[in-house]
Amino acid sequence: YSEDYIKFGFTCQEKEGVDLPQCVICFKVLGNDSMKPAKLKLHLKKCHPNLLQKDEDYFEWRLSGLKRQCLDSSSAFYNKTSNAVRASYIVAYKVAQVKKPHTIVEQLVLPCAKEMVWLILGKEAARKLNDISVSNDTISEQVVDEIKKSPLFAIQLDESANVALWSQLLVFSRYMVEGDFRDEFLFCKTLDTNTKAQDVMEIVNNFFEVYGLDWVNLVGVTTDGAPAMLGSRSGFQMLVKQRTPMVTGIHCFIHREALASKTLPDKVGESGESYQIIGSNFDMLLLYTSVRWLSAGNILNVFQLREELDLFLQAQRNVLMQSNLELASLVDIFGILNKLNLQLQGKGANLFFHQSIIKAFLDKLELWIVRVEDNNLVQFPYMDAWEKTQILHHLWKLQDEFQRYFLEVDRTREGLSFIRNPFTIDVNSVPEDLQEEYLDLKNDFVAQDVYQQSIIEKFWASMTRSYPNLSAHAVRFLLPFASTYMCQTRFSCL
Q1: Which domain holds residue 44?
Q2: Number of compact structural domains in the chain
Q3: How far is the C-alpha of 16 from the C-alpha of 488, rounded, in Å?
Q4: Are 341 and 401 in contact (CB under 8 A)?
Q5: N or C end: fewer C-beta atoms under 10 angstroms in the chain?
């Protein structure tokens, strides 16, 4: 048997020391005399003509399905395959822990392991290592199988250039499994040509086709605000909506918060130019704080910049007092924004969680504006010497920008209040086609106990059988990611 025979749809089953070809489509085992490319291809042509154009990745995927079926049997082949699958997961996990590319297993780890086993334990022992799958898709296939069993799923995706200036596309998925939500890495692909929406769609659609994922079951797509992703006419989200109109397209909350915060203040940019003039190694600092950093407020950790700041202030003695006041404004306002940004970060957060944070921040802005108008600067301890009109100007500007970037927050919160509080909302706030089922749920004491003991996602996932329509409606709004946080944190690994 040669590993190249997988391209004909065949794997190998060993019996009494003899290799027998087994079709990964129909699972038929042929005789050893059929272990020839011409005969294997003939079987594929006669028995599975519709698969002649499939590539090797497709047959690798079918092979993984065959191995998983073997895990359900009680034959001797079960133990052999079970250990091989476990070994493949362990190796993949070890490689991920040290942040090495998956290809290192196929190119180095497994070949070295075979050589070592051959020399120490013999040829037959080394042959057994061929059962260990080292494909890039080994783990993804398990995730895909879980997604297929979930009635609905959502994705977040983003692209960024790595150190070799290659654009990488990262995709994560959220779905239901065993009565709960799960977030998992789906795939990482290189954008070979450019980063246009059509190129991103081609990669994602190809993955869906190869692994049999249905666009109809996709309920949420979360991206950053780049035109290729969020463009109103030809962005990736619009291309997805052409396939499944009911999908919810979401602009990353963290990205929106960063854009809304860019209104502060104009002189920050001028300060960045001054750093360049004095030859600082930190001249790119302010550029990356604009959007790239997850915590833009960390700019205030200026200890490393003490020498540059000293030179800068010495060169600006004529405006020293003004500079101090500007720095004071940055300390207060960026400190507030940094706290907000940190609240928006983290795994597992849903739209309701992020909407609550933004709504609270907008309410705080309103409160701070009233306080400053009354000469109360308790929220801004470093701004005692600053003119009140300057503070109000920045707060009003922030208020306008946040309202512009988060227009949907109030509307969504009111229309979906029964999802957050299923036992306290008036029935008239529930869509008419769900009202009768909602009344059944509202008076279900067992469901109330479950709700009190569970987080909101787990509660609605557990109601799938008892209240299918209500649960499906709730899950459509709970599954979508609110940000591309997971993508952003993984880009640092790349």
Answers
A1: 1-70
A2: 4
A3: 51
A4: no
A5: C
Record the tokens describing residue 191, joined without a space: 């954008």
Residues 41 and 159 in one domain: no
Tokens read off for 408: 């949907």
Q: What's the distance, CA 396 to chain centroid?
A: 33
pLDDT at 371 over 70: yes
Are residue 248 and residue 265 in the same domain, yes or no? no
Domain assignment present for 33: yes
Q: Whole-angstrom Cα distance, residue 213 to residue 146?
A: 11
234 occurs within a structural domain? yes
Q: Where does 33-155 have alpha helices with state H?
A: 37-47, 56-70, 76-97, 103-104, 110-121, 123-127, 138-149
Token pair in block for residue 264: 């502060």
Q: How confident is the model at residue 480 (pLDDT cuts 50, 70, 90)?
A: very high
Q: Is 12 left (phi over 0), alpha (psi -120 to 50) or beta?
A: beta
Copy the structure tokens of residue 144.
């895909």
CA angle 56, 58, 61 (to 5 degrees): 110
According to DSSP, the β-strands at 153-161 and 18-23 are unpaired
Q: Does 165 lie in the same domain as 56? A: no
> Contact 56/7 with Cβ under 8 angstroms?
yes
Look-up of token digits 């294997």: 40
Whole-angstrom distance, CA of residue 23 vs CA of residue 29: 7
- Examine the pLDDT at 446 and tell me if it is beyond 60: yes
For residue 113, what are its two tokens? 């392991």
SS3 285: helix
Task: Name the token pair of 104.
Answer: 């290192």
Same domain, 224 and 170: yes
Position of tokens 């933004």?
Answer: 358
CATH of the domain at 176: 3.30.420.40
Summarize pLDDT for 116-154 with one digit per residue, the tens.
Answer: 999 999 988 888 887 777 666 666 777 888 899 999 999
pLDDT score recorded for residue 285: 39
| CA terminus-to-terminus distance, the chain | 36
Query: Which conformational region is residue 103 in: left (phi greater than 0), alpha (psi within -120 to 50 degrees), or beta?
Result: alpha
User: Are the beta carbons of 344 and 254 closer than 8 angstroms?
Assistant: yes
Residues 9 and 33 both lie in one domain: yes
Cα separation of 96 and 94, whole Å? 5
Domain match, 388 and 261 both: yes
pTM for this entry = 0.69
Domain annotation covers residue 131: no
